[in-house]
Amino acid sequence: MSLSETSIIDVFRRHFAGERSGLVLGIGDDAAVTSLPAGRQLVTATDSLVEGTHFLPGAAAASVGHRVLAVNLSDLAAMGAEAHWATLSLSIPNADGEWVGQFAKAFAQLADEFGVMLVGGDTVRGPLSATVTLMGSVPTGQFVTRNGACAGDDIYLSGAAGYAAAGRAVLSGKTQFDNMQSEEQQSRLRTYCQRFEYPLPRVAFGVALRTVATAMIDVSDGVHIDLSHLLTASNIGAHATVPELGLLATDFDNDTARELFFCGGEDYELCFCAPAESAPEVLRLAAEHAVPVTRIGKAVAGSGLSWNQDGRPVAPAGSAFEHFQD
Amino acid sequence: MSLSETSIIDVFRRHFAGERSGLVLGIGDDAAVTSLPAGRQLVTATDSLVEGTHFLPGAAAASVGHRVLAVNLSDLAAMGAEAHWATLSLSIPNADGEWVGQFAKAFAQLADEFGVMLVGGDTVRGPLSATVTLMGSVPTGQFVTRNGACAGDDIYLSGAAGYAAAGRAVLSGKTQFDNMQSEEQQSRLRTYCQRFEYPLPRVAFGVALRTVATAMIDVSDGVHIDLSHLLTASNIGAHATVPELGLLATDFDNDTARELFFCGGEDYELCFCAPAESAPEVLRLAAEHAVPVTRIGKAVAGSGLSWNQDGRPVAPAGSAFEHFQD
Q: Do the interacting molecules here have an ipTM over 0.85?
């Protein structure tokens, strides 16, 4: 089924027909109008997914629709911000009704789960890509930046890192997975793929952390690179320990598993710092939000990020990363 | 010169290094933070330009950088909104430093002219395209929609429509321009191209009109289609007159000139309605903002949009439009 631009807009409009707090004028005019409650600041992120760069040609439309919103939700989570309104620009080579329907359904499901309203956008003919701008808010002054960490702060990581990159490798048909045929192995491969295709950003936990985190970033480019960004912005260094690598330790040799952790990226977990005395509060919030959290290191005066694993110094080689990248 | 993603971001950051009212945290963290003054509502538009669809392969980078912001400024103008903050997602096949530099310079020049701050974005490898989300504001409740026009309202159009489509045709090398060799003809062709490549949105005039306009839309898809959208949204009809067609009447036969006016699009002029008794105020605002304005018709009860030219009924044939489209 081929759709006109008007029909494509209608597909999205049907998914977002309800009322939503703060929405004054939604899809259908030259621009959207929304109201921010008094005492709050606007927090805005933009991210694009392009076929061939961020997802494989032929990737499931539902995965693309889910991820393009999830990556933006994760950016807001890393600021400690609640998400409110999104715009979507969708570029598609031909108006394939089934593709658009699956994309819109997955986008709307995730939006609904996080209280996000689609308020506008653009539908254009072009190579397959999607761009979302997500607007949210924080009580004035309560956003969490990358640059507030201090020497002595503990460094934490939510969830597991490296799984999404393993999933990306599985989906691109890398031969090293050809021997993983047992039911258990297949189940683990599906877990990796799920993490890549349908990541769940840590929004509620990010919002909760704004009372305790001194600095925060989301792990989109890999733990080593993103933690390095945070440390540079905060003008400090850190000593960190590679945590247990979970499923990765079963399916890969140690060097590859560690590289996936260091450099894999696209996990959309939160990496954050908090004063040592706040450790009980961090663990309480983690338990309250049912988010696994690992203390992976400590910020120190100076610069640089040094890692150890099982007491031995280790460093990202970039090899597994290169290996898995196309 | 080839640029890394970090260098590309730095190119934009240099252009937007200053302070700006309402900017709390700009480029460089997971998201931007901005403050909207009390008593104002947020107005948001998103538009994309894709190579091969919205601009010709090989189009000047400066034109693409200018237009992707201009089209969004025009959307905000049509709401009567002041523009404040933009995000930019830029997809480029290779990091060509000169291309990015020219794009950024033109984008920043137009942003500066309209008081817009670039607060964030994304730079990705992919087919050439750019998406801007532009955020602005209006005093609470004072935005102008498409749906407020009443029977009896006058219908106005700013500037001249059809020139941009003529410019697009010139730039795509249509053969009908081969005989236009005189200096005067060449000068007119440059005027058309300028209107297509570097449109100047009517932002200040749009803001001024919010005290008097009952409905407003920007002419991006052509006068006939966009005015029809406004009438449908307002649940009324209209009788309208094709105005003097200016330069188009010199360079094209009457049917072609009229089709360019009806269906050309991409002029980014404002089409708006106002009560008959407000005519002196509309003309006063037009003079104050040095914007040429023509009263082109009258809203009537019912539905449908009928046109006349020199007393004869005429209708869009879509032929010139098709003729000029690739």
A: yes
